[in-house]
Sequence to fold (162 residues):
Amino acid sequence: MKKTIALIDCSIPINSRNQKIINSIKENFPNSDIHVITWNREGLSLAKESNLHVYNHIAAYADAKAKVLGMFGFKKFIKATLNEIHADIIIASHWSNLMLVADAKKPNQILIYENLDIPTGSFPVRQISRAIENWCLRKVDLIIHASRFFRPLYKQSVLQFV
Fold:
């Protein structure tokens, strides 16, 4: 049975780890329909691709405030795109993307958290980010950790891989 898979990233170009995930899915599940939903934060000119869904909104990478403000629009874009493509599997790459998709997950969908990094920042920001991440984890079916050092930081109630 053909599955529709959506990988959520928030940068252009897609990072190398996510590209490896996409290539692995293509190799192991050649009948899958893979969509990438991403955010063009620098206003780059991009070629139109049918399975690349791009939210175009300027938010410089060094500007945390612009990113936070832009996340509301990106979240709305993600939700609309997921509804349009009817994804069976959603891969949220990074904790900030997990925050944007956790409540968009439907009961019949699988949510995979690609744990590229753990929340950082000053003490209150880190604590708030971790609390939000923990709340979102209740919707996650599988976690893939980028580092073996991340695994002990997460509950064992979710299937985890390094």
